[in-house]
Design goal:
The complex is a heterodimer. By secondary structure, chain A is mostly helical. In chain A, about 75% of the residues lie in helices and about 0% in strands. Chain B has one domain: Orthogonal Bundle (MetI-like fold). At the A-B interface, α1, α2, α4, α5 and α6 of A face α1, α4, α5, α6 and α7 of B.
Chain lengths: ~290, ~300
């Protein structure tokens, strides 16, 4: 933009600094709370400037490494499997739909788009996955339902293959005698790294953050499959339970202390906090692409 | 005969393509199409042992029971009211933020603001519930303790429902601000700079430029997004309504939405009848809304519509 008025520039900066501050402040509090001494935290509450710092929350986490480490590995495993399978089948389906001459293309497109308009809702989906596919308390319950592929991302990839890669390149590969699969892996995929990075990152974050599949498809019998998010959710459940039932079956001593809870949350979001600045570009791109085409 | 052969060979050439799409198509079939058969559960007296097909039909009984409860109206009211208020608020907040960040000069500064403001959008609702709890917790919350020190008493946030419309609205806007900002920013970046140059030459102030150029040119995008989100008014952010109020029963009056009701009825109370009825209403009415919204959008601008 040209000729920015000076007052506007200052006002814009002030508002943006304020918004950035608002966005970051809770995370700073979370991190500081995890380094606060437990008794001080209970007495004065969480604070940006605790009277006494402490590493005991993290020492506790290390001592609980078997449970939390397992949950962490589960998160990584689910994210890795889900994202890689998801990206591959999304890219393949997007590639198929991007071919303008494909017989039945309109119908297949409709088949994909319809899933964005209508869904059976939680009850039929849950009952089908539990009764027909028996995913309750299995790792499939964390990976397969809802997250593996979305029609929306298929459409993004399809548009990219169709509009951002010159169709002549595919033709040239075919004339050179490449099979369709070779064309896909040698020509289409290498040229589409930006879009694959974008959808891969979106899926990766969705898997890393997911707690709903665990909430629906894991119960006490599937506790050893808990991801970090499920552990956090479970702690929340117990706090809520305690709050509404003063004398209850939940033992207060079993609950992680005020600071340990925060430390577990910090550990859970750490990878996102660290990796995010590098991925921010792709993420912003993904949002804009979604805006251009629902 | 000859033509037939040619067609056959032609079709053969497409087989690899269909094979490529097959895994994805199968997944959508399992995840999105098979459950549609389960919509009949809403009209049945479902039992897990008999299964979906063999449970007896009961007509509209589940719906009659559902709409006789006060819950049904509360959850529909909450879902609709929050959605409509937030759709409008998000548009205003998003456009304002987008205009302001465009005024910022300096790549690094801009990047910092964007990175910071978008961060909450990347967090799971469980983590966000922890963040809110850090401020409002009755035992150690930052705000609770502050208020206690200042006034002697602090409200029990997790027990009193009067706070939650504001808390939920704030959390929702806080989380989605970056998303909306980037969305509208891309439209602003697409505006022809010569329009602003001409306006400056004519002596227009910055405010006049925004009022007469930026905002009118943003209106089509805003309207499009408004209509598309109106198509979603029957869906709610399950995580926000379930996690952030910490699943407290005393707050259900202002935190229960269709999605949280369906979950609670299905998995906590084992009431398949009520929850499937609510789920059915949500699916069908939601579908009609989305199709309607898309019809309107495609009339206004064909390229923005889903189909």
């Amino acid at each position: 933009m040209v000729n920015t008025g000076k007052g506007w520039k200052i006002a814009a900066n002030i508002v943006m600094i304020l918004c950035s501050f608002l966005a970051l402040a809770p995370f700073v509090l979370l991190i500081i709370a995890s380094f606060t001494d437990e008794t001080v935290a209970l007495m004065n509450g969480y604070s940006y400037l605790p009277e006494k710092w402490s590493l005991s929350a993290y020492e506790y986490i290390v001592s609980q490494a078997s449970m939390l480490g397992r949950a962490y590995l589960m998160t990584i495993l689910v994210t890795a499997i889900g994202t890689s399978v998801g990206v591959i089948i999304t890219a393949l389906l997007g590639y198929m739909l991007s071919n303008r001459n494909l017989p039945g293309r309109r119908l297949l497109n409709l088949y994909v788009v319809f899933t964005m308009l209508f869904n059976g809702g939680l009850v039929p989906t849950y009952i089908m996955y539990v009764k027909t596919f028996a995913v309750k308390n299995t790792i499939f319950g964390l990976i397969v339902p809802n997250l593996l592929m979305s029609a929306f991302l298929v459409m993004l990839v399809r548009n990219y293959f169709e509009n951002s890669i010159p169709q002549d390149l595919y033709e040239a590969a075919r004339i050179d005698g490449a099979s369709e699969f070779q064309t896909f892996f040698r020509v289409a995929l290498p040229l589409s790294t930006p879009i694959l990075a974008t959808i891969g990152m979106m899926m990766g974050i969705a898997y890393w953050n997911d707690w709903q599949n665990g909430l629906y498809y894991l119960n006490d019998a599937g506790k050893n499959l808990y991801t970090i998010q499920n552990i956090l959710n479970n702690i929340n459940d117990n706090i809520a339970f305690l709050a509404s039932n003063a004398t209850s079956g939940v033992n207060l001593a079993d609950l992680p202390t005020t600071t340990v809870r925060m430390a577990i949350a910090v550990v859970g979001i750490l990878p996102i906090l660290v990796l995010y600045p590098f991925f921010q570009k792709y993420f912003a791109k993904g949002i804009t692409m979604g805006a251009v085409k629902g | 005969m000859k033509q037939d052969k040619k067609k056959k060979r032609n079709f053969k050439q497409w087989i690899p393509f269909y094979l490529m799409g097959l895994p994805g198509l199968i997944y959508l079939f399992i995840n999105n199409y098979l459950p549609l058969a389960g919509l009949q559960i809403a009209f049945k007296n479902f039992s897990y042992t008999k299964g979906m097909w063999d449970s007896p039909w009961v007509g509209f009984k589940n719906f009659k029971f559902l709409f006789r409860t006060a819950d049904s109206w509360i959850m529909i009211r909450n879902t609709l009211c929050y959605n409509i208020a937030w759709i409008i608020l998000s548009a205003i907040v998003g456009v304002t933020a987008a205009i302001l960040i465009n005024e910022v000069v300096g790549k690094l500064k801009k990047k910092f603001y964007m990175t910071a403001i978008l961060l909450p959008y990347l967090m799971s609702m469980v983590v966000i519930a922890y963040l809110v709890y850090a401020y409002l917790s009755p035992t150690a919350g930052l705000f609770t303790k502050w208020l206690e020190r200042l006034t002697g008493t602090a409200p029990a946030f997790y027990q009193e429902s009067k706070w939650w419309p504001f808390i939920l609205t704030f959390v929702n806007q806080w989380r989605n601000l970056g998303f909306g900002m980037i969305l509208y920013m891309s439209t602003i970046l697409g505006i022809d700079p010569s329009l602003y140059e001409a306006a400056t030459l004519d002596g227009a102030t910055r405010w006049q430029q925004h009022k007469n150029i930026t905002i009118p040119l943003l209106i089509p995008t805003v309207v499009m997004l408004l209509i598309l989100s109106l198509g979603q008014v029957f869906r709610s952010d399950f995580g926000l309504f379930y996690q952030v109020p910490m699943n407290q029963g005393s707050l259900y009056g202002v935190t229960q939405t269709i999605d949280t009701y369906v979950y609670r009825a299905l998995l906590k109370n084992n009431d398949v009848g009520m929850s499937s009825a609510a789920s059915f209403v949500q699916s069908v009415v939601g579908f009609l809304f989305i199709v309607g919204a898309n019809k309107i959008v495609s009339k206004l601008d064909k390229s923005s519509a889903l189909f």
